[in-house]
Amino acid sequence: MTQSLHPMLNIAVKAARAAGAIINRAALDLDVLKVGQKGPNDFVSEVDRAAEQVIIETLLEAYPGHGILAEESGREHGARDSEYLWIIDPLDGTTNFLHGFPVYAVSIALAHRGVVQQAVVYDPSRNDLFIASKGRGAFLNDRRLRVSKRTRLSDSLIGTGFPFRKGDNFKRYVKMFEEVMSACAGLRRPGAAALDLCYVAAGWYDGFFETGLNPWDVAAGSLMITEAGGLIGNFTGEADYLHQREVVAGNPRVYGALVQILAPYSRVIKAGEATAPGSAAAHADTAGSDMAAAADPTAAFLAATAAPPGENAVDSADAAAAAPVSKPPRPPVRIKRADAPPADAAAAAQRPPTRDARGPGPRAGGPAGGDRRRSGPRKPGGGDAPF
């Protein structure tokens, strides 16, 4: 590394490389690993735990007063009331790792008062180190990162993730995929969100979207994108994405196009909705907890994930979100009687020009325009009467 690093970022790099060494050693003999399950299709190995332990030890040795939010241990370690919070995913892409598919990474971010300030994503299989400091840019090894310059979604390569947890509504995902796939040049799903976000920052992807993500999946990658000139938010385009379990990112033009497509599928979590989404009574009864959630969104997120709603509630909410929001019908336009044209004038305007049926037509061989001249007054009802 040729550029000087922020001291806290330097410690994060040290921790990420130590975890990467553990992961690389374990990758040489995957058959002997002990693997458990946190849930259906959600695996955890002894490598995850060992990598997380060395990261936490390295960080707290340098900064014992900082807080820790880690995928495997939660808030068990570190200070609970610190303004500094390290957000850690020791092995993002565990399923890939267990199958020998070399797309996984270590993700470490440091947030100060809820704003990510330092970020590291380390790909141990390629020895690629993505780093970012707020206001100082994002880098891959020694190369400065910039998002792509494509302006049309039809020319763009988009990254995403697939649902895999119990209760995920696949129909909702299929609808989103169908809309995005038909609008872009290609859709990819490698299986490690932290790396996906770094690929957007590097310009390899033009955009990215996924639901069901946790803070440790997106915290580090989000800073990479903003420091590379990109945008990141939830499906409605707002900056409150870290604890919303949905994220969309990309260069500015592609980001805007994706938000237009994905906004109808948003399930943004508002204050008071963790217990009973959409319930006004629950919102009123939990006003005090709402204030606490606003003060500490991480605590609110952990509380929500510790007691998720039942499968039926998840499915019904997803099904409601699957259908795009329809616009209300426009009221019919009525013309007031005073504004309407007179009935006689309207009838005259609609009646085609024709001669009076009682009058004779033009003489044979005579002019058809009625240019005959007569002496004396015209008789009413004659053929030369005006229309």
Report on this model:
With about 375 residues, the chain is an alpha+beta fold. It folds into 2 domains: about 10-140, Fructose-1,6-Bisphosphatase, Chain A, domain 1 (2-Layer Sandwich), CATH 3.30.540; about 155-305, D-Maltodextrin-Binding Protein, domain 2 (3-Layer(aba) Sandwich). It is built from 12 helices and 14 strands. It has a 7-stranded mixed sheet, with helices on both faces. Strands 11-10-12-14-13 form a 5-stranded mixed sheet, sandwiched between helices. Strands 1-2 form a two-stranded antiparallel sheet. The N and C termini lie far apart (about 95 Å).
Protein traits:
Fructose-1,6-Bisphosphatase, Chain A, domain 1, seven-stranded mixed beta sheet, 387 residues, D-Maltodextrin-Binding Protein, domain 2, alpha+beta, five-stranded mixed beta sheet, 12 helices, 2 domains, globular
Give the C-alpha Rg: 33 Å
- Please indicate the percent range of residues in DSSP E strands (runs of 2 or more): 15-25%
Distance N terminus to C terminus? 94 Å
| Largest sheet, strands/sense/barrel | 7 strands, mixed
Q: Low-confidence stretches at least 5 residues in length (pLDDT < 50)?
A: 272-295, 307-330, 333-343, 345-349, 354-387
The fold-level CATH name of the largest domain is D-Maltodextrin-Binding Protein, domain 2
The total of beta strands comes to 14
Total of domains: 2
The level-1 CATH class of the largest domain: Alpha Beta
Structural class: alpha+beta
CATH architecture tag of the largest domain: 3-Layer(aba) Sandwich
Going across the major beta sheet, what is the strand order? Answer: 3-4-5-6-7-8-9
SSE order, one letter for each helix or strand: HEEHEEHEEEEEEHEHEHEEHHHHHH
Shape: globular
How much helix is in the residues?
A: 25-40%
